[in-house]
Amino acid sequence: MDLEAYSAVHGDRWDEVDRLARSRHGSGADADRLVSGYQEVATDLARIRGVAPGSPTGDRLSRTLFRARLRFTGTPVDPLTAVTTFFARYLPAALYRIRWVTIWVAAATVAISAIVGVWIASTPGAVATFGTPEALRQYATEDFQAYYSDHGLGAFTAQVWSNNAFIAARMVAFGITGLYVPVAVIQNAVSLGVSAAIMHSQGRLGDFFLWIAPHGQLELYSVFLAGGAGLMICWSWIAPGARTRAQALAEDGRALLTVAVGLALTLLLSGLVEGVVTRQDWPWPVKIGIGTVALAAVLWYQWVLGGRAYRAGERGDVEEFERGATALTAG
């Protein structure tokens, strides 16, 4: 079956059924057309899934049929079930889709940070351009560590979380430009490299890694996830495949924006580790171990649970979550 030709022939009927399903006020004739149209679209969906089980066209018709069923049955979906399904299937599948792009963003960050740090540390006079000897000494011996303890636990955690969440959300939202994510990644990597070089110049490079390791593992990985989602949204309209660019952007953008929900949670977890664990006078292996466990949990959620959901046919769409929201408003 040629999906494009099939869509061209039946597309007007699908659009009409979708319009009737979305309409909140219709006549008796509209209800009759919706019922008959529902049967025809269901037949079309069965044919499409017989040749292309995971096609965007099939997903679109599935959503149309759900809206139609909701219109003439009025049976709401349990919101708790919808939210549970979202976090158990759709969110991990969305995260799984960007797994390799995330790795590439991480590799680029590490490479740029290392290059910048080594260059500054090995170039005579380069470190001095970032401050006076006294300012550099104070940064390395006092300010770097005081950052984690100068504020109250709750206020510091909230500040860290809101700041990082804002950065991650911008990387996802502005990823479509194709420029924002690379610029943000480079800026973040350069900042890490400069900090490492300054700490190294004062003989405190070990402290640099110790103090960022507990929370930095998950915090940085969350930023890598945000960068990966932003780049994937950009790629959806650069290379849309058989879909139109508008359709590809709408479908993939909706799916990948679900990553923002996951990022809010992972950054909240890293903020808790930074605000609660990093500042404690505990052995470093304990603090770093807690951060490693937090990162491992997110990796399992993305790679293992997400892989299962993706192989089962999920693509990270928010359809199930939308069903719960629709049920609340329509019930």
TrEMBL record:
<feature type="transmembrane region" description="Helical">
    <location>
        <begin position="98"/>
        <end position="121"/>
    </location>
</feature>
<protein>
    <submittedName>
        <fullName>Stage II sporulation protein M</fullName>
    </submittedName>
</protein>
<feature type="transmembrane region" description="Helical">
    <location>
        <begin position="258"/>
        <end position="277"/>
    </location>
</feature>
<dbReference type="Pfam" id="PF01944">
    <property type="entry name" value="SpoIIM"/>
</dbReference>
<feature type="transmembrane region" description="Helical">
    <location>
        <begin position="284"/>
        <end position="303"/>
    </location>
</feature>
<keyword id="KW-0472">Membrane</keyword>
<keyword id="KW-0812">Transmembrane</keyword>
<feature type="transmembrane region" description="Helical">
    <location>
        <begin position="220"/>
        <end position="238"/>
    </location>
</feature>
<feature type="transmembrane region" description="Helical">
    <location>
        <begin position="179"/>
        <end position="199"/>
    </location>
</feature>
<keyword id="KW-1133">Transmembrane helix</keyword>
<dbReference type="InterPro" id="IPR002798">
    <property type="entry name" value="SpoIIM-like"/>
</dbReference>
